[in-house]
Specification:
The structure is a single chain. Helix content is 49%, strand content 19%. It is of the alpha/beta class. The radius of gyration is 17 Å and the shape is globular. 40% of the residues are buried. Belongs to the cytidylate kinase family. Type 1 subfamily. It is found in: Cytoplasm.
């Protein structure tokens, strides 16, 4: 079967990663969570006191970019690859609300985006890849054979994220999660470098009222249709 590149973009907490993992497993493709890469850089910035609630030392972060080594390592028990930062497994700490509060600000930095986009394009040079993020179909893989753009209401996404954090034992409020979702939406869509936009040839999916199985079935049908035509 012909191998293609699948680009999944969309707003935060729309289930991009869940869908991408499902597709990669079904198709036996490589899955890359670009959001985890930006989260890891945000975590690095936090650990090195480059960013906080009322400050952001962009210059120090930019100067430290050569020191940031990112790697995905497959975890057979989990069935997907985990994010490693400078040799350390950071899959759990990068998913906290604290990192979520800073990741969009870090992702605005052009030098950070340049480094990560270069890595992402290298990962996908042989196709057979499913990659999710904010600019995959517009910047990383503008020639991707299938582009999906996922959206849902801010309230729906906040509730999903809140439930997920609660299940992990994180002590957060729904109001704080909703505030984070709305703020990230604004930053992601208004940044100068590679803002979140729908690619002209992307297929938009509003999953406010779709469950995971319905969404997966619909997108898998799109994949099969595209594979037949390439």
């Amino acid at each position: 079967m012909k191998k293609i590149t699948i680009a999944i973009d969309g707003f935060s907490s729309t289930g991009k990663s869940t869908l991408a993992k499902q597709l990669a497993k079904e198709l036996e493709y490589v899955y890359v969570d670009t959001g985890a890469m930006y989260r890891a850089v945000a975590y690095f910035a936090m650990q090195n006191q480059f960013i906080g609630p009322d400050f952001f030392d962009k210059k120090s972060l930019i100067d430290s970019i050569p020191q940031i080594q990112l790697e995905f390592k497959f975890n057979a028990d989990l069935g997907f690859a985990e994010m490693y930062l400078n040799g350390e497994n950071v899959e759990k700490p990068i998913r906290t609300i604290e990192v979520s509060n800073f990741v969009s600000k870090v992702a605005e930095v052009s030098e950070v985006r340049s480094k990560l986009v270069q890595q992402q394009q290298e990962m996908g040079k042989n196709k057979a890849i499913v990659m999710d993020g904010r600019d995959i179909g517009t910047v990383v893989f503008p020639d991707a054979e299938l582009k999906i753009f996922m959206t849902a209401s801010a309230e729906t996404r906040a509730q999903r994220r809140f439930d997920e954090l609660q299940q992990k034992g994180d002590n957060v409020s729904y109001e704080d999660v909703l505030k984070n979702v709305v703020e990230r939406d604004y930053i992601d869509t208004h940044r100068e470098d590679s803002p979140l936009v729908i690619a002209d040839d992307a297929i938009e999916i509003d999953n406010s009222y779709l469950n995971k199985e319905e969404q997966f079935s619909a997108v898998l049908e799109l994949v099969n249709d595209v594979v037949k035509t390439v």
